[in-house]
Amino acid sequence: MKGFILSFRSEFYKSRKTLGFWAAILLPLFICTLGFYVKAEKMAGTPPMMLWLQFAGAILGVMGSLLLPMFIIFIAYSVNSIEHKADTWKSLFSLPISRWAVYGAKYSYAVFLVLITLTLFVLFTISYGNLLSVVKPELRFDNYHMEKELAQVYFKLFLSSLGILSIQFLLSLLWADFLKPMGIGFVCTITGVILASKNWEYCYLFPYSHPMVAISTLLHRGEDQPKGIQIDVFTKDVFVSMAVGAVIFIAGYFIVLRKSVK
Amino acid sequence: MVISTDGLSFNFGDQQVVKSLALQVPEGSIYGFLGPNGAGKTTTIKLLLNLLKVQSGSIHIFEQDIQQNRNGILSQIGSLIEQPAIYQHLTGKENLLNRALLLQVPLKRVDEMLALVQLTSAANKKAGQYSLGMKQRLGIALALLADPKLLILDEPTNGLDPNGIIEVRELLIKLVGEYKKTVFISSHLLGEVERMATHVGIINHGELLFQGSIGELQALSQPLVCIETDNTVDAANLLTRNGITVTDVNDNYLYVPYLSKQKTADINALLTGNGHAIFSIGKQQKDLERLFLDITQNA
């Protein structure tokens, strides 16, 4: 356990000056700021609940469909590329720290970055919504609250991203160059989006569809029940995503062990 | 013995790269692990560091089995494999601080190590901007950070200029002399290791061809008497007529097996007595470099 904590802290220390780490903070800031400027113009006179749904929905729509999978591909790559670039795998694995701890800490750090990003999305969406009600009093953001629902939605997105994260993490671990994991990830993401938007009945089995599935079930629900929002976090696609995440994470460890450390 | 392996073998697929190796590295030695490129040196080192799993045979380091006591053993080893593993986007000092964090070493060690490898003035420069020699020294500082008893260095002077090579050599001699470390150093150049090593292992095609002290290696070669004279061919004929074997003759020198001081004096007297001008005469060990080539090529 101590080795794990030390490795995790070292992951932070190493990455704190890299784009991978800052992207986790800047991406939500950028998207939410964009939402703030673009959406705010056209929303006067909309009821408070719809205001929130439109505002948060716009950001969610951009995130869930394409951006989140691409972001995960990038994070999984950046966490591993630090070691590929510096040729430090061999020195990491010859430390007096168990290999499980080193591998687990690296994976957890990638999960942590995704979690940070999605948490910041919740925080920025809420802050900008409330900021809007102050800056533009005609927008009655303050008359409705959906902090809990937003947190649930993003938590669901987080869980749905675990499958992709594990797969991309493993691909980035095995291949030093960006193009292979990126290319595979991109093709799978596009496939996932198409499958999910066509409502293919088995797309809950395909990890790259999960964020899109999570978002689209939510939006439908929003339209059906305009009086209130019920968010079902633990749907079968979420369970599949978590299961795929766990299995690939464990399998990845054994694949890494078998592969000779360069 | 700090390192002892027994019947250590390793295959990459069908290809056997290490063949039942029996290394014996005594405490306090500088062990030069020599062999041409592709002889199996790096694979052996990766086995010693548990980066590759032992397929057959055993490795004992500090009298403990590496398989059973991995973390305990690794905490007493500092290593540098091929290129130094350095995060280019961090400064030299940050690289050391990161490792200190992982190994739970007091932070003041970082400054001591920077001073030891003479990188104090470049400590806050990005490691990516370091010269090759500086990177190599930073790599050695990283290896030394936890004050390990055993240093395993894979070609630490690769790509260094003569100054850099001398610096590394002096640092290692100092470490063994003053700090009582054991150093296991691999190289494909005997000349580089011969000036500091106390023990030598020579490997080729995965097989250990020679192992012993530097003295034992030298004893393998027959000492010769090297004679510089004006007419080497006539001199050689004269010696042969007098029942003395001549090993080699070239334009300037002729070589005769060394037997004793008195015999050398007799040869000298014989030659000068017959009108040969002797410019120099002396005992000579066979060049270790040539010996190394003989050992690796005859295998």
Describe this structure in words.
The complex is a heterodimer of chains A (262) and B (299). Chain A has 262 residues and is mainly alpha-helical. Chain A contains nine helices and no strands. The two termini of chain A are 26 Å apart. Chain B folds into two domains: 3-219, 3-Layer(aba) Sandwich (Rossmann fold), CATH 3.40.50; 222-287, Alpha-Beta Plaits (2-Layer Sandwich). In chain B, strand 1 (3-12) and strand 2 (15-21) form a beta hairpin. In chain B, helix 3 (92-103) packs across helix 4 (108-116). The longest helix of chain B is centred in the middle third of the chain and has 18 residues, at 162-179. The two termini of chain B are 27 Å apart. Classes of the chains: A mainly alpha (262), B alpha/beta (299). The interface between A and B is medium-sized, with 24 and 31 residues.
Concise overview:
The complex is a heterodimer of chains A (262) and B (299). Chain A is mainly alpha-helical.
How many discrete domains of chain B? 2
How large is the radius of gyration of chain A? 20 Å
Helix content of chain B: 25-40%
The CATH architecture classification of the largest domain in chain B is: 3-Layer(aba) Sandwich
Uncertain runs of chain A with pLDDT below 50, 5 residues or more?
222-226
Oligomer: heterodimer
Number of helices of chain B: 11
Task: Spell out the CATH superfamily of the largest domain in chain B.
Answer: P-loop containing nucleotide triphosphate hydrolases
Which CATH class of the largest domain in chain B is shown?
Alpha Beta
Structural class of chain A: mainly alpha
The H/E string of chain A reads HHHHHHHHH
